[in-house]
Design brief:
52% of the residues lie in helices and 9% in strands. By secondary structure, it is an alpha/beta fold.
Length: 519
């Protein structure tokens, strides 16, 4: 028979039961995909249905989600149906994706079709290894996924289920279960879904809170796709009554700089105040102010002060470099411990330990020392090599233990000595050489000067990553004498930078540099 029973939510109708209802869940480790699958099976069986679930795990962390496949069918005349073990493209009724790109992959696999599939997806991002390992911005374009799912699915319910679950002290499986209940594609009342959660026996109250929050959200936003790309914004450093140094920074930005640069200057000053202190944020404004004076002198107003705007961004990045002190500081912050507890769904009475993998090199140790002492060690290769054999070892650091926490805390407390250490001296010398080169170009080739400022994007990270970035920066800048007097010099500099960002080995950059040499 082919019955249509009125659904319990938002006016939807139950799927046909002349054949099994097929459900595919795409979830990564730690997102509770197995729990969600078990809840759906338990829900169906509690109502006299037959149900089966199978799973195929992803091959590695963030290179592929586990696919849980379920089929549900009412019991008929005591006969047991034969269920499929894997989803068939074009034959899936419901897809639940626990992350935006997994929703996109479900479309690529053919699991989502416009004639039958209801797609329930979280719009948050958990970056894949391939996105993280690229030297530049390797993050996939979420708008492509949103546009694709808009046409690929019969119906879509999509919003940030991860954040909603975290706010309610639970994990994403709870909010996805709530969205499924609201979709009305299963012939079970909301109360039955809630009873299934209560039957689990663990984390009942937080799970129910997240379930109900998602149910209400999905009901309010049915058939709408909430944009996965939030509006771009910058944190604004607010007026800080009682802290004159920060008030001074805010007033300086408003009084001395063009409005186009204000958002980046606020963000940069905030970042550098957190990195070091308010005086360091004021030092940043002084340096950018000098660049802005050059910009005004050489017609920057006609260019929308593009030079000043980009300098506001990349000077802050250059001054907030990653060193041993910064890494230690971030690892012992209370906010980090709170975030990790939230991410793993820890209860108030549970203890959470974090194990960090740290691999310091002697270069980082010397960089943390006073400039003269660090140079003294570096200039004695035999001593440097002996010390490197002692410190250059991978270590698993448990920050939840008193010994390691205090060790990292002591290192983070060296922030007050940062301005006198070797690493800081080198970073500031590199910064000044880079900015001087850009400043000299303003009068003859404004656009190329802006591109030189943008080249700082190549330098980031810590340890080996930082060294590779510096190497690419130097190689890109080596083409400057060839481009300085060319009208298309800015375009070529941009191409070189993009080539440097394409791969870690620098093969694309090699080819681009050879091309520039023939111009």
């Amino acid at each position: 028979m082919n019955e249509q029973i009125a659904a319990t939510a938002i006016g939807a109708t139950r799927l046909s039961t002349d054949k099994p209802i097929s459900i595919a869940i795409l979830a990564m480790g730690g997102q509770g995909g197995g729990v969600l699958a078990d809840w759906i099976v338990g829900l169906a069986e509690s109502q006299g249905w037959m149900a089966q679930t199978t799973s195929v795990p992803g091959v590695a962390q963030r290179t592929g989600a586990t696919i849980y496949y379920l089929e549900l069918l009412p019991a008929r005349d005591g006969r047991h149906p034969i269920f499929a073990l894997m989803p068939t493209p074009g034959d899936v009724d419901i897809v639940l994706a626990a992350e935006l790109m997994e929703a996109g992959r479900s479309v690529l696999r053919g699991l989502v079709t416009p004639d039958r599939t209801t797609l329930i997806a979280s719009t948050h991002r958990a970056l894949a290894v391939g996105e993280k390992e690229k030297p530049g911005d390797g993050i996939g374009n979420p708008e492509v996924v949103v546009d694709a799912t808009d046409f690929a699915a019969k119906r879509i319910i999509a919003f940030d289920m991860e954040t909603l679950a975290a706010k309610n002290g639970s994990v994403i499986s709870s909010s996805m279960f709530g969205a499924l209940a609201a979709a009305g594609v299963l012939p079970f009342a909301k109360e039955m879904f809630e009873a299934t959660i209560r039957g689990g026996g663990k984390g009942i109250e937080p799970s129910l809170k997240a379930f109900n929050a998602a149910f209400e959200r999905a009901t309010a936003k049915t058939n709408d796709v909430v944009s996965a790309t939030p509006h771009k914004h910058f944190d604004v450093l607010p007026e800080t009554a009682g802290h004159p140094a920060l008030d001074k920074i805010v007033h300086r930005i408003r009084a001395e700089f063009p409005e186009q640069a204000h958002p980046l200057l606020y963000a940069g000053a905030k970042k550098l105040t957190d990195f070091q202190d308010p005086a360091y944020g004021d030092e940043y404004l002084t340096r950018v102010a000098a660049l802005h004076a050059l910009d005004r002198k050489h017609g920057g107003a006609d260019k929308g002060f593009a030079f000043t705007v980009q300098a506001a961004k990349y000077v802050a990045i250059a001054m907030a470099y990653d060193d041993v002190i910064r890494v230690a500081d971030l690892k012992v912050r209370a906010s980090r411990f709170d975030r990790v507890r939230t991410e793993v769904g820890a209860k108030a009475d549970q203890i959470v330990y974090m194990t960090e993998y740290m691999h310091p090199r002697m270069e980082e140790i010397c960089g943390t020392l006073p400039k003269r002492l660090g140079l003294w060690i570096e200039n004695r290769p035999r001593l440097f090599a002996r010390l490197d054999r002692v410190v250059n070892k991978g270590r698993r650091v448990k920050t939840g233990t008193l010994f390691w926490f205090l060790g990292l805390y002591v290192v983070s407390a060296l922030r007050g000595t940062r301005r006198g250490n070797l690493r800081h001296a080198r970073e500031m010398a590199h910064r000044e050489a880079w900015l001087a080169e850009a400043g000299r170009l303003l009068s003859s080739n404004y656009d190329l000067a802006v591109e030189v400022i943008n080249n700082r994007r190549l330098v980031k990270g810590y340890s080996d990553t930082h060294a590779r970035g510096l190497s690419k920066f130097d190689r890109v800048m080596s083409a400057l004498p060839l481009l300085r007097h060319r009208d298309d010099g800015a375009a070529w500099m941009n191409r070189l930078r993009q080539a440097a960002l394409l791969d870690e080995s620098g093969i694309a950059l090699d080819g681009a540099l050879k091309t520039v040499a023939t111009l």
